[in-house]
Amino acid sequence: MSEIIVRPLAQSDHADWKRLWTDYLTFYETKLPEEVYAVTWKRLFTEGEFEPKGFMATLDGKAVGLTHYLYHRSGWSEKNNCYLQDLFADPDVRGKGIGAALINAVKQEAAKIGVKNVYWMTHETNTTARKLYDHVARRTGFIEYDLL
């Protein structure tokens, strides 16, 4: 049986991280300049309570998934909230538990510091991901607005 391993991102993951994040951005029909890749990678390893963090998932030793998450303050709680910002599993391994394992890793990491609220967004057309999300979390009913 194949073994899924989820671990914190390491500096040595740069090539795999860039490949997976590029595939994630492509899925959402988005391109980012190289400067954003560079600053994001740097931030993932910058110490600080509110700096983003990440996990890499491997299956049989191959990098197949990633997630980025960050903590932020809330006016509704003494503890921070955890925003799971990006979640991606290689299409070749979807349905094998990669996404669920990454979500669980973020949940467990947040719990270590007393954070109970882990949340994320997805596009309404992302039906594959929504099947997983409907299984592992509750849908809040909130609708996102932004000022782009």
Automatic annotation (TrEMBL):
Residues 4-148 form the N-acetyltransferase domain. The keyword Transferase applies. It comes from the Bacteria. This is GNAT family N-acetyltransferase. PROSITE patterns: GNAT. Keywords: Acyltransferase, Transferase. It comes from Mesorhizobium huakuii.
